[in-house]
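Slide 14.
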Amino acid sequence: MRVAIDAMGNDQGATPIIDGVKQFLSTYSDTSLILVGRPDVVRTELARVGLSEGEKIELVEASQVMEMKDKVASLREKKDSSIVRLVETVKAGKADAMVALGNTAAAVGATTLGLRHLKGVKRSGIAVPLPSRKGVCVVIDMGANTAAKPEHLMAYAVMASIYAEHVLGVKNPSVGLLNVGEEAGKGNEWLRQTYTMLETAPVNFLGNVEGHDIYEGACDVVVCDGFVGNVVLKASEALASTISLWLKESLLSSVISKFGAVFCQGAFKKLKKRINYESYGGAPLLGVNGICIIGHGRSSANAVYNALRVARESVIVGLNNLISEKLVETQRELELHPIDSNDNCAQPQAV
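Slide 15: predicted structure.
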């Protein structure tokens, strides 16, 4: 098995990526990696950790980098960027999966335009695992499609359910539709249509859920459009860091609290691990014709390791084959109209 990774996508440079690569290769001997980026930078970092090109590591040269400030349209100007070359390795069959870090819009755009969609998929969606009281809640979409139609949301529910079950190990995952109330008639016309479609879709649909249900563990999968999902994600990230800051300030506020913090270090470490997004290994871009895991631009070595791990696991379970089979079944049950192939060529709308 081979997994390709963008070695230039981290805000902190290639160092955390190569550290994560070393951790991954020392754990999984059955997987080799393709590192895409500037050879001089990558080789220097590999030498630092005692690695080099060979049976387990291959370098693919890319002279350009998509910066965080770059828009999707910049892909036309940066055809030799690491994200474009990364997608090409998967498209050419040289890699079974890819890990893209950094500019999410560029990753979604390059992957969608380069790999297209799976049969039966009109729009891809970013599925982000968030911690909940019961373990994990997968929220889809977190920013790939800001104008999702009912058929898109229905497909998100199917794809995220398969991911939660076969990659995250959630048995018979329950699905909720994010809305402004739990009653079936809530929301706009598109949400009401989506509710009706999900009632007959081959998923464990519980009905409408509200924002608090994500963290309270009311369901295992929450479906929403990319605009709402991205707001949820950014607010959640800020809340987690703010609570950590408040906790630190409180513990340092007096001698007694400092003394007590010494005895609570074990509990604090467990809490940090539970709420840390890095433990879940990035977010899969579900619906594209290839395994793509999207990681944060600030990913640490541990986050990179887990992103590579999830990419590997997605290949092993045959994630895309499972999605394609289930969507064909879904379309039969809902008697949907055939997918318009021209829709796959539409410009992706990523946040």
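Speaker note: The domain at 128-279 is CATH 3.40.718.10 (Isopropylmalate Dehydrogenase).
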